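Support request, please re-run this one:
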Amino acid sequence: MRPVIFIALERAAAVVFLVGVLGSAYFFLIRPAQLHWGATGEEIARAMPEDEIVAHPAFDATRAITIRGTPQQIWPWLVQMGFRRAGFYGYDLIENVGSGTGIRSARTILTQFQHPQTGDLEPISVAATLVFSTVEPNSVVVWRSRDVPCNGVYIWQVVPVDARHTRLISRIRWSYAPGAWFKALGVFTEFADHVAVRRILEGVRDRAEGRSPEPLSIEALVIAGWLLAFLEFCTATIAIVFSRHWKIAWLFALGAGALLLFNLYSSAPVWVCAPLPSLFLAWIVWAWRKGRLATRRANHDRITSPLAPAR
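Re-run finished. Output below.
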């Protein structure tokens, strides 16, 4: 038998390699596309109000979407966004928890939030609050962090395309604040922001165009799919360390990790993404039971074989 230390090192290397494969897929394939989701080259390159506030951002994303409507029709939906305000029109089951205003984001224009002034607070979660900076009606609104020096700026701009269409552009630039907690929050934001902002842009579009928001039941299915895929990945990764069949567990972990990335960042419809983690789990259970059955048969055949040594 090999020494235990060699087995432990082998499995640790397998976990590191797994994280490296999935991390490379994220940083070299997924992240570049998500940072510029929907934006044109000109929109990415253009200067926007208060760009210069964060000179050397760790995160610099410009996304955009075309909306059927004028800036005057889109602006009221945009300017009222916020935690304990109108919500973010995104994943309400996550973003509005604890807001005190209900789970659903607003489906109407709320007059009390239509006239923010520079310096007004803009809560974005239970734990974080920004302030309004530039506010140019029917054109641009900027949220910025309250830190000195400022380490984050969120810019929303509406740009008319023609008489009936408008581009809504989002730019987010932030750097890591000092302290372990803020760096951990930054890492979480790195992965979550791509999902959240895309959904916000679509939410503004849908409301401005008069579409009904997606039912909460569908949203719950999507979120449940994320959680199940994440649980499958964690379970399979742990199995790499402790299971006798760690190589098979490695393949399961790779599949679960790839599935999680697909569900989070692809534009596939709900009816494709939502059932995939359950189907993957069913396949894992089937493969595991099939493997156990094959092992039992092999052991039985070895024991009952005429060539087996007598006990």
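Strands lie at 59-68, 121-123, 129-136, 140-144, 152-160, 165-174. The mean pLDDT is 91.
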